[in-house]
Design brief:
By secondary structure, the protein is α+β, with helices and mostly antiparallel strands. The chain has a single domain, classed as Transposase IS200-like (Alpha-Beta Plaits), CATH 3.30.70. It has 4 helices and 6 strands. The N and C termini lie far apart (34 Å).
Length: 162
């Protein structure tokens, strides 16, 4: 079996526990529309999408010094902005801190696991899967933050027209 060379998804040498704003995108495996559909340029969540949305909103309850900005659950992916307010005690996290796993990857790993587990427990659906990685962008300034927020708000309209 030949494995594709994957482009690294993390910025080399960057500490993903550093305070700041992070734009995250994580996709469902094979980009299947597990979370709902777009109708009249609006995202309409189904039961799975409601789980994904609720658990995204729960992230700050599990990680200290984390707040959320804009996010959207799309049919086959999630876009969201995670803010690390300060480096500090993340002891509310159910995972023990690890030198090998920085905060943003830990948050996304726990989120994806929680969504998968809840879908499987609630609907006995073992077909649902995420892609193994996720995309992140370190937001550097206010104009960039504004553009990313607009991108999130406009995503259903752009997706519906493509």
């Amino acid at each position: 079996m030949i494995l594709k060379n994957r482009k690294p998804t993390r910025k080399q040498g960057y500490d993903y526990s550093t305070p700041g704003y992070y734009f995250i995108t994580t996709n469902v495996k094979d980009r299947l529309p597990w979370f709902g559909e777009i109708k009249n340029d609006q995202m309409v969540l189904n039961e799975y999408g409601a789980i994904a949305s609720h658990l995204w909103e729960e992230i700050p309850h599990h990680f200290r010094d984390i707040t959320l900005d804009e996010f959207i659950i799309m049919p086959d992916h999630v876009h969201g902005i995670i803010i690390i307010d300060a480096v500090g005690n993340n002891d509310r996290c159910s995972l023990q801190p690890s030198r090998n796993m920085e905060l943003i990857p830990k948050i996304i790993s726990q989120y994806k696991s929680s969504v998968t587990r809840k879908i499987r427990e609630t609907y006995h659906d073992h077909e649902f899967q995420w892609q193994s990685s996720f995309h992140d962008r370190i937001i550097r300034d206010e104009p960039e933050l504004g553009h990313i927020r607009q991108y999130i708000w406009d995503n259903p309209k752009k997706t519906a027209s493509s």
